[in-house]
Write a structure and sequence with these properties.
Distance between the termini: 44 Å
Helix content: 40-55%
Low-confidence stretches: none
Number of helices: 12
Radius of gyration: 19 Å
Number of strands: 13
Order of helices and strands: EHEHEHEEHEEEEEEEHHEHHHHHH
Mean pLDDT: 95
Oligomer: single chain
Largest sheet: 9 strands, mixed
Strand content: 15-25%
Structural class: alpha/beta
Length: 339
């Protein structure tokens, strides 16, 4: 049994592996076993791993299962106390693992944690995908310490203290294997986007805690290489976010929030068309709402099971505010402004 298993899920990431895997091996090998799980890549990822990184343990999946189910398939083959899900485009730092392991060893009520995520392109800036820990507003919109919507803050140490969060980024997520499987793992139906938020929210409902530990920090390529408009990403984000809300919100809030989301989602669709002229994103939001409506009943049993396991009636990190109102109307662009 491994104490810590670092698991990198790869799909056609040969260049990223060649560039960033050496830092993972150099700075982690004394504390963890490094695995690469390959999602049926069609590039030379497997050849690279066999030639250049024979010390990595390799898991070869039979097809591209996506982020969520790909990790489920891979982790089912690994016996470890802690899993650390790590993106292939992460550059880790000296002793990055030690604070995470030591904190989890002492705080048994904590199911998962993340390091501080910084941009590899500007190392003084937070990185979009998780910054310094994630929160939700009352309508299910995610934001972070260090990033609200497209406003990413400079890291001046303003969030350099360990804090409880609602969700930890899937780009660098340490989680107890027992908690991972007790909560049902990542929801493979999501394929990608919002799956780590969904898992963390389910853990919080069960009374487990999630932390960001900025003493540990890593650098992430992430959104720096993505186009501003990506209809498939928009579709998955909206569909999966609505599904996550349906699964996790208590009965007392669900209908109210869903009514508002109907209005807010269509408002977002028209905003992308009229102000940004993104026809693809406009259609993607409409498609996402239709897709959610079609498959909502498939998640009815999931919702019932999640609510039956509810220990935490209120989760403070789901803040009782509208992040849209605060950001666009009140002009609060930074997490520290929200308080």
């Amino acid at each position: 049994m491994d104490r810590v298993a670092i698991v990198i899920l790869n799909w056609n990431g040969e260049k990223m592996l060649a560039k960033y895997l050496p830092t993972v091996l150099s700075y982690s090998r004394d504390e963890a076993t490094v695995y690469v799980a390959d999602n049926a890549s069609t590039d030379d990822s497997l050849g690279l791993l066999q030639r250049e990184f024979p010390e990595c343990k390799l898991i070869v999946l039979d097809k591209n299962w996506g982020f969520a189910e790909g990790y489920n398939k891979a982790l089912a083959q690994i016996d470890a106390e802690y899993y650390l899900l790590l993106n292939s485009d992460i550059e880790v730092t000296h002793h990055w693992l030690t604070p995470l392991i030591e904190f989890m060893d002492v705080h048994h009520e904590v199911a998962a944690c993340q390091p501080k995520l910084l941009s590899i392109f500007d190392r003084d800036m937070f990185e979009y995908a998780g910054a310094s820990g994630g929160f939700l507003d009352r309508f299910g919109y995610p934001f972070c310490r260090g990033r609200i919507f497209d406003t990413v803050e400079e890291d001046n140490g303003q969030y350099d203290y360990a804090t409880e969060v609602l969700w930890a980024t899937g780009a660098a997520l340490m989680i107890r294997s027992k908690d991972y499987w007790d909560a049902g793992g990542l929801d493979g139906r999501f394929f990608a986007h919002n799956e780590e938020i969904d898992l963390c929210w389910r853990l919080r409902i069960r009374g487990r805690k999630i932390y960001c530990l900025p003493e540990s920090y890593v650098y992430h390529v992430g959104g720096g290489t993505l186009p501003k408009s990506n209809p498939m990403k928009t579709f998955l984000n909206f569909r999966n976010n609505l599904t996550m809300i349906y699964k996790c919100l208590p009965d007392s809030e669900l209908h109210y929030v869903m009514r508002w989301r109907w209005f807010l989602d269509y408002l977002a669709a028209w905003q992308t068309l009229i102000l940004q002229r993104h026809w693809g994103d406009f259609l993607a939001i409409y498609r996402a709402r239709r897709a959610f409506k079609r498959w909502r009943n498939d998640f009815k049993a999931d919702r019932e099971a999640i609510q039956q396991h509810r220990v935490a009636q209120e989760i403070p990190q789901q803040m009782p505010i509208s992040i849209l109102w605060n950001y666009y109307v009140k002009g609060k662009k930074r997490f520290s402004d929200l308080k």
